[in-house]
Amino acid sequence: MQIGTRWADNVPPPPSVPAALAEAIRAANLRGGSWTLTWLEGRPIADHSDGTHLEIDATGAVTDSGSELCDEDDDWLTG
Fold first, then answer.
1. pLDDT tens-digit series, residues 12-57
2. What is the full DSSP assignment across the chain?
3. Would you place residue 66 in the very low, low, confident or very high pLDDT band (cuts 50, 70, 90)?
4. Which residues on adjacent β-strands are paired with residue 44?
């Protein structure tokens, strides 16, 4: 079992956030609110208080659901 954590989005993600997910969090560039890291079946999930939902899928890719920040291509996730 892994314990999650919460942090304000105006500070860097804690070290327990995997690098790929931390990069996507920084790329989201949200201001105000907070992030919550949880784990489901060994995979990290980051939820923002505005409804943004980022997770690492089974292939290792960061996916976004539940937000209006990106278009169908999820270009902001990959730069």
1. 999 999 999 999 999 988 889 999 999 998 899 999 999 999 999 9
2. ----EEEETTSPPPTTS-HHHHHHHHHH---SSEEEEEEETTEEEEEETTS-EEEE-TTS-EEEES-SSS-TT-HHHH-
3. low
4. 39
Nearest alpha-carbon partner for 25 in 2, 44, 3: 44
| Token pair in block for residue 24 | 């996507």
Find out whether 32 and 17 touch, Cβ atoms under 8 Å. Answer: no
Taking the model in full, what pTM does it have? 0.76
Q: Do residues 61 and 48 lie in contact, with contact meaning Cβ atoms separated by under 8 Å? A: no
Give the C-alpha separation, 31 to 3, whole Å. 25
Quick one: tokens of 68?
């209006």
Q: How far is CA 31 from CA 3, 42, 57, 61, in A?
A: 25, 28, 25, 24
